[in-house]
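Lab notebook, bench 4. The sequencing result for the construct came back, and we need a structural model before the next group meeting so we can plan mutations. Quick request posted to the team channel:

Model the 3D structure of this chain.
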Amino acid sequence: MSCPEGFDPFGERTPTLLEHTSACASCGDVLSVLGASKVVWKEEAASDDARAVFRERRLARTRMRRPARTAALSAVFFVGVGVASAWAFAPLFTAHERPPLAVPRSVETAAPTERAPHAFTSGNPASTPEPVETVAPAPSAEQPPPVPSSVRPAIVKAPTAEELWERGLARLDQGDRAGARSLFRSVIDAPRVEPELRRRAMFRWSEVLLASGDTTTPTDTLWQLVRGADASIGFDAALLLERCAPDDRPRIWDTYLARTRDEPFRTQAVERRSRAR
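Done. Here's the predicted structure in token form:
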């Protein structure tokens, strides 16, 4: 939305802006709608906190119901790991306890040769020499083949859509817009997510992009929210869509009024449609 005098009613509420709203009907309407929207956002935040508390208590009751089963499964797992490790490392320990290999020896008999008679002999032929024993070289000891490990790596569980949503809100509170935008996008693209949570993630994702100065990327997503069944989020999305496409204000509110019958959002939408040109 653009003011003829150059004021931005969505920015900081300075004394100059407040004084200007008394003369500018458009800026005054924006401030009144933002005040009503702030009340709705606070109620939604309280609802989100209540759901988070209920979810934590439900998870706590679930953990308390099956402690024996969890302990039994843990014991079976560690016993299985111990048996697998013992089977894998047993050949390495038994290899040092094997008896040494016997060294074979081959006996060769030398052929008889004639020798000249000794000086003090009477010329008798030389006697046959004794056999000579030769020792064959010892064969090289063979190394046992490596035993493959049977221990499986730990499985890392992917975070749920609710956990990604909570992380995105935390990043937003820390001022990390890029991290929050990425986490909200992950919630939108998650295969298993509740429709209400997906709509909230779509609105937050569009809001962060618009706060960063991008008025083109979130346009299609905001149109989906305006046409959706949630009157509260649809009204807030229509306000953001006015900033993305100021010339389409009549079409924005006509689309919202065609799907919404809830009060007081319909009354406020009719007033804004009557001022749209």
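Confidence is low (pLDDT under 50) at residues 106-127.
Will bring this to the meeting.
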